[in-house]
Amino acid sequence: MHLTSHRSRRLSTLMSIGVCLALISSCSSTSDSSTPDSGATSDSSATSTTTSAPIEQSAASPRLAVSYDGGVLVLDANTLDVVGKTEIDGFTRLNAAGDGRHVVVSAGDKFKILDTGTWSSAHGDHSHYYTSDPAMTEVEFAADKPGHVVRHAGKTVLFNDGSGLVEIFDPTQLAKRQPRVETYTTPEAHHGVAVALSDGTLLTTVGNTESRNGIVVLDADRQEILRNEQCPGVHGEAVAAGEAVVLGCQDGLLVYKNGAITKVQSPDAYGRIGNQAGSEESDVVLGDYKTDPDAELERPQRISLTNTVTAELKLVDLGTSYTFRSLGRGPHGEALVLGTDGAIHVIDPGTGKIVQKIAVIGEWTEPTQWQDPRPALFVSDHTAYVTDPASKKLFAVNLDDGTISTQTTLEHTPHELTGVTG
Q1: Which of 134, 153, 214, 421 could share a disulfide with 198, CB 3.0–4.6 Å?
Q2: Quick one: 268 exposed, middle or buried, by C-beta within 10 A (0-12, 13-18, 19+)?
Q3: Pairing mode, if any, of strands 252-257 and 92-96?
Q4: Phi then psi for 242, rounded to 5 degrees?
Q5: Across the chain, which distance is largest between two alpha carbons, in Å?
């Protein structure tokens, strides 16, 4: 792996480096898929490293990670300047690790951990912010077909599609060592997902290599307490307000909340919801919606909005198609969809009304192969980031006023996109 980075500010901060080196131990910080329809413990003394001493900043420095064919770019999320580049062979997928600093890179037979080089540390009543060069760490998790990565309730959960192995860890340990991991293995391997909940329970999908049909809920001792197998083709997950967990089916969804599982039926016999986006600010989950079971590639124009309190499913016609990388949520729970018309469609999740269309890029067509690059939407706080592979551009959109605040042209064609808060 090869790493390059901007280092221009170091000459002006030489006096502070010694201080940061002395504090380096305290500088460390303490809810996407392998396909588009995207109790033992162990410990290790492996450590993660970066290539430069940390530099103290006046505020948090959020960063973005953008994958391309051959590696990952790390950018300053405010300026969109590239601050680091890591070369990785093969097809990769990106997910924020959940600690505001690291990114999980699914590559080959491993979940690898990328340190984006930005974090905060509390000293007394004050928080201090630091940056350093991004770098791949020594922390990694061997995986048989690495799949979904889920962040919730202070835990990160990795799912191995080829073995059914579920690995649960505290992401704040990533800056210090290979984290202590709790494991669970599903009875049969399948393309699945697992969610660790705040009360210690674990929700996992049920299935095998031939089919998937539901979910099971396990208590803190990993004993089964609840099951529902009325969800053919179960896929994806999202968490809404009140810790309501939603998983998609070929005929609707399953909602797990307050110790009960509710089936929400689609209005069509085949009404598939495979990708969802949730928000702690909303009881409503945004999902895709497909109705043609025989389509080689269906380009849907309707999205689903499911109320996890009332179990009501509402469909909204966008007038444009979208893909599995098009769904996001705004800072107030707004449902956001990046359409093939090049606009972000802002939807009131309660009424289903499209309240705004923000033009960002030109019209585009979804490629036939899901692994091929296509525009992607990632939302952080009040900013939506959009990639345009055709022009190699990356845009930052202010969701408060609907304007493009920053844009840049990348040296590589962008693929997946995620970010960390710093």
Answers
A1: 153
A2: middle
A3: unpaired
A4: 75, 20
A5: 67
User: Per-residue pLDDT averaged across 87-96, rounded?
Assistant: 93
DSSP 74: E
How far is C-alpha 223 from the chain's CA centre? 28
Cβ neighbours around 227 below 10 Å, total: 12
Give CA–CA dist 343/356, Å, rounded. Answer: 10
Element (H, E) at 156: strand 155-160
Residue 19 has pLDDT above 90, yes or no: no
- Determine the pLDDT at residue 124: 74
Give the integer Cα–Cα distance in Å for 148 and 150: 6
Q: pLDDT digit string (tens) for 104-131? A: 999 999 999 999 999 998 877 789 999 9
| pLDDT over threshold 60, residue 315 | yes
DSSP characters for 271-332?
A: BB---EE--TT-SEEEE--B--TT-SS----EEEEEETTT--EEEEE-SS---TT-EEE-TT
Please report, for residues 117, 177, 282, the alpha-carbon distance to residue 28 in angstroms, rounded to integers and kept in the order given: 10, 11, 32
